[in-house]
Design a protein that fits this description.
The complex is a heterodimer of chains A (about 70) and B (about 475). Chain A is an all-alpha fold. Helix content of chain A is about 50%, strand content about 0%. Chain A has two helices and no strands. In chain A, α1 crosses α2 (about 35-55). By secondary structure, chain B is of the alpha/beta class. Chain B contains 15 helices and 15 strands. The chains are: A mainly alpha (about 70), B alpha/beta (about 475). The interface of A and B includes residues 27, 51 and 57 of A.
């Protein structure tokens, strides 16, 4: 069963700074008018990730890749 | 107009009539093209109508029959495909503006070729949500697909044109893709049967990808027999799809009349018994009652599975589109672009953890199938929303509509289980859908149960009034 949730997401200002850094790193030009929606989407993704990250898995649990050589 | 050239004709009835010489493929094709001309301006299902090609194909089908050759199991059956399938001579737009600048496809996608090899007649490409990152059927470039049962309502997406074209009677069969629910959602909103096969079953070669981990292709139709007929025609190994499983074809058409007797059927509880409005649970109860299914079963950690699918989808989708985000971000549908930009910022550790969880979840869900053959769940949390609607109320909370339409479909496609979505008409209003879910590679069981429900009159399709 899930244990403690992973750390709460940072506040909007911190997330926006992260978005600016990540888009810069990725070379994606970010129109200031898009930042609000990108922030909302990143928060939704982050909240989903928190749910996943709070679930304990054994170190030996590898991904179930379907790729076959 | 004979029955087999009319809007309600099934693929099965058309193929039988064409093979028997009761009607020509040309007559069936001309009738379908006429319906598209009449209905498409209002419903916006087709983006590309290939009338000349379709008539030439129909002439070939008729010539083969006249020469005494086998007509094929789909002889003369008109069909169309979501415009992420390659169509020879056209750029594969995948609902986008950007892709219209691609070189025209050199040949059709694998499943288009297989449908035609079985005698079907290809009519054209269908509207879809941009790059398949969509549950609504809306599109900033091509306009929204409109629900034939109420054009002010969504078709659902992202295979929106596929749902609209079949529900309107333009064609009896359409192909779509389903990454997180994009066949099952339009099937529910448009009142159709839809088959999302097991991950790795049907070749995805020659289709524009979205999330390689979850992408599936499959048919939408107005009868279970039609789904089975087309599914059988599309099976078979294809080295061009690296994720396709090494399995021989396992035809199902001969088994769908075997009934649901003897199958262990359970209703999904927990996550699947929350997060929706009363109508979707009434539809589920209706189907469960028709099958005598009472035993509740809970998928372990289904909400977490949906969350993991959400993270992987955003990350893989962003990785796929990174160059386009760099070069032409202003040419995306804003609703797609802003999610993809956010997805490009996701830490790799989140994605890897989600994939590791996927394995954990898959193993536990597969263990459930030791004691059950079929699982039932709602397809969507609500009936078709109004086009432009942005929020949904779930369990008293107002939430963004777009991501939450897939609340019940995502935990299933996350691990590639086969599903036949069945349409339920509770009253005089719009339809709803129920997912009939089987263990991997048991499409036959899902279709058997769907057919039993169809035969009993518990589920079925209606062609929308023109």
């Amino acid at each position: 069963m899930p244990t403690d949730p992973s750390p709460a997401l940072p506040d909007d200002a911190t997330l926006l700074a992260f978005i600016d850094a990540a888009t810069g790193l990725n070379g994606i030009p970010l129109d200031p008018a898009w930042r609000g929606e990108v922030l909302a989407n990143l928060r939704a993704i982050g909240n989903s990730a928190r749910l996943v990250l709070s679930f304990p898995l054994e170190d030996e649990a590898e991904p179930a890749s379907v790729f076959t050589a | 107009m004979s029955e087999v050239t009319g809007p309600g004709a099934t693929a099965t009835s058309i193929a039988a009539a064409v093979s028997a010489g009761e009607v020509t493929a040309r007559a069936v094709t001309e009738a379908a093209l006429s319906r598209i001309v009449a209905l498409n301006p209002r419903l916006n299902a087709f983006t590309d109508v290939l009338a000349e090609r379709a008539l030439a194909t129909a002439a070939q089908v008729d010539a083969r029959r006249a020469a005494g050759e086998a007509s094929g199991p789909l002889a003369g059956v008109p069909f169309a495909v979501k415009n992420l399938f390659d169509i020879e001579g056209l750029p594969t737009r995948a609902g986008s503006l950007i892709n219209r600048g691609r070189a025209p496809a050199a040949r059709d996608g694998a499943l288009v070729r297989r449908m035609e090899a079985a005698g079907a007649v290809f009519l054209g490409g269908l509207n879809m949500g941009e790059y398949a990152y969509d549950f609504t059927g809306e599109n900033a470039h091509d306009g929204a697909s409109r629900n034939p049962h109420d054009p002010s309502r969504m078709t659902g997406g992202s295979s929106g044109g596929s749902g609209g074209a079949v529900a309107a009677g333009m064609v009896p069969l359409a192909l779509g893709s389903d990454t997180n629910g994009s066949i099952r959602v339009p099937s529910a909103f448009c009142g159709l049967f839809g088959l999302k096969p097991t991950y790795g079953r049907l070749s995805r070669a020659g289709s524009f990808p979205f999330v390689g981990s979850f992408d599936h292709l499959g048919p939408l139709g107005r009868s279970v027999a039609d789904l089975a007929l087309s599914y059988d025609a599309m099976q078979g190994a294809d080295a061009d799809d690296p994720a396709q499983a090494p399995r021989s074809p396992e035809p199902v058409s001969g088994a769908i009349e075997d009934g649901a007797g003897g199958l262990r059927i359970a209703v999904l509880g927990g996550h699947f018994a929350r997060n929706g409005d009363p109508d979707c649970f009434a539809a589920l109860a209706h189907v469960a009652a028709a099958l005598g299914a009472e035993a509740p079963v809970e998928l372990p950690e289904a909400a977490r599975a949906r969350a993991a699918a959400y993270v992987i989808t955003a990350a893989e989708g962003a990785a796929l589109h990174l160059d386009r985000l760099r070069e032409r971000p202003g040419d995306f549908d804003p609703a797609t672009r802003d999610r993809l930009i956010a997805g490009a910022a996701i830490p790799a550790a989140w994605v890897h953890r989600a994939q590791r969880f996927r394995r954990w979840y898959r193993e536990r869900v597969l263990a459930l199938f030791d004691n059950v053959d079929i699982l039932l769940a709602p397809s969507t949390p609500c009936r078709a929303p109004a086009i432009g609607q942005a929020t949904i109320v779930m369990d008293g909370a107002t939430l963004p509509l777009r991501p939450n339409i897939g609340v019940f479909t995502q935990p299933i496609s996350f691990i590639g289980l086969p599903v036949c979505a069945v349409p339920v008409w509770l009253d005089g209003g719009l339809p709803l859908g129920v997912q009939v879910i089987a263990a991997p590679w048991r499409e036959d069981l899902a279709l058997r149960v769907a057919r039993a429900l169809e035969r009993a009159g518990a589920v079925g399709c209606r062609v929308a009034a023109g």
